[in-house]
Design a protein that fits this description.
This protein is of the alpha+beta class. The chain contains twelve helices and nine strands. The chain has a five-stranded antiparallel sheet with strand order 6-5-9-8-7, with helices on both faces. A four-stranded antiparallel sheet has the order 2-1-4-3, with helices on both faces.
Length: 337
Amino acid sequence: MQDAPALELAEIAVSSGSLNERARWMLDGLRRVTPFDAAWVALADPLDGSYCTLAAAGLEEVTQAYLSGASTADDIQTTQANRAGAPMSPSDLPYPAEDLATWAECLIPAGFHEALSVALFTTDHRHVGFLALLSGSARPPTTAMRRRLHQLTPILARGIDPLRSLAISARVLKGARAGAALFRDGTQRPLPGLGRDRLLVDGSPVTALARVYLAYGQIFTSFLWRRGDPDAPEQHVRVTVLASSPDAPVSVLGAIVLAPAPATDLRGLTARELQVLGLVIEGLSNQQIAVALFVTPRTVATHLEHILAKLDASTRTLAAVRAARQGLYVPSTPHRR
């Protein structure tokens, strides 16, 4: 049976507070598990290896600012404290802590002489943050303290996971089955709790279009994508693009989520009619649509008549507006809006 302090931390980790709130609440809970004079928990940026303060206890603002700077990030990397493993103490180092800029310039002048620190990794091996418990005493942390903190690190990592908020938002979407977080460097990573899909690989047309929407400042966008696989159980999937939350690292753009698009949600529109409707939304005339689809303008006009009837729209403009609002847009190319 899980002990009460660990259970409390687990409940905080899955609570609906912001990243900063959860980090602060977890520090409060952690104090009842293992003693410390001050503490610092930071969010790791996966792109540049930097850290930004999420919450602190017993630290002056100038100390927090230093810990969020380049010197501390360098020292964490130098001591390999950014790797998954047991918590580390300065007493574990083969050289004096004073040889590190963070200790010599920041922590020792602030009155701290010992610490227990650990890199926070999620269960799927993502480095999401860093925790340091600081002490004014020069006595090294006990084996029991090390073991206790090591047991709690998966819970702490879950609580500050910046992709968790995106994953929660994604799972609320009807039928969400696959998703990825989009990063500013052009890469993406699977969203926790959702599956993978070949449409979400790096550089795919779907993710390229999602990045265009996010670059335009769209908070929420939904459109359809037609699968090229004729053996797929459905012709279209619903693609939803979500902007990242304000407390996520700046390197995270947002998320892209895939869900089934059953025929009952398509207003009776056929695959060809959706294709024509997509080109109407993009502003093409009947003649231009005919050229793009290698059909006659008369065929396009016939499709458009059926579209107007199914969307109960009197004009092509009204049909385009209603279709876009209902997420019935099928993009013709990755970068056209």
